[in-house]
């Protein structure tokens, strides 16, 4: 896949709709860090999120037990979300590839500002989908229409009514039944 281009909405929505369990590598217990509020958002959407941070291992972040490494995670894990720098993304991806069969990993997702073409090529060669320089929280909000409430251009114009979640009128979902 050419990662220089815009990812199609169908590609991103397909990943977010199929995934149930994320592992946030580089998750932070600091409430002002992007990994913290992205984790809080996804938990609020019904996803399971496992924080991976050796400095927080054995402690809880947002009520979820933090793990030392990907190898310590319980199965299943659908998406490895990398909150580390671009250079570290290759090592994290290689760890994920080593555990992909045991954990059932399907996607390597690199956060905003994180891009590693070697990691992407190795992940795709291992049969994994890859997203780089994107945030699942932002993409979920954009695709569900929630992000437009904050005045952000969602790049989508539609008269279609949003799909509401079981969590209330201001919580949208990507697909019925989520």
UniProtKB/TrEMBL annotation:
UniProt-listed SUPFAM superfamilies: NAD(P)-binding Rossmann-fold domains
Superkingdom field: Bacteria
Domain CoA-binding: 16-114
Pfam family, one: CoA_binding_2
Phylogenetic lineage: Bacteria, Pseudomonadati, Pseudomonadota, Alphaproteobacteria, Hyphomicrobiales
InterPro entries listed in its UniProt record: CoA-bd (IPR003781), NAD(P)-bd_dom_sf (IPR036291)
Protein name: CoA-binding domain protein
């Amino acid at each position: 896949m050419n990662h220089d281009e815009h990812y199609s909405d169908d590609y991103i929505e397909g990943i977010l709709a199929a995934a149930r369990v994320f592992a946030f590598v580089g998750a932070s217990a600091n409430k002002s860090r992007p990994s913290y509020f992205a984790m809080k958002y996804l938990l609020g959407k019904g996803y399971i999120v496992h924080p991976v941070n050796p400095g927080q291992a054995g402690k809880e972040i947002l009520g979820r037990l933090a793990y030392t490494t990907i190898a310590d995670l319980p199965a299943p894990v659908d998406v490895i979300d990398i909150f580390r720098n671009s250079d570290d993304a290759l090592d994290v991806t290689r760890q994920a590839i080593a555990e992909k069969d045991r954990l059932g990993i399907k996607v390597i997702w690199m956060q905003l500002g994180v891009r590693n073409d070697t990691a992407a090529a190795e992940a795709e060669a291992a049969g994994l989908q890859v997203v780089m320089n994107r945030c699942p929280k932002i993409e979920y909000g954009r695709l569900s229409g929630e992000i437009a409430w904050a005045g952000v251009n969602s790049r989508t114009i539609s008269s279609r009514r949003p799909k509401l979640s079981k969590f209330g009128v201001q919580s949208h979902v990507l697909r019925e039944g989520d």
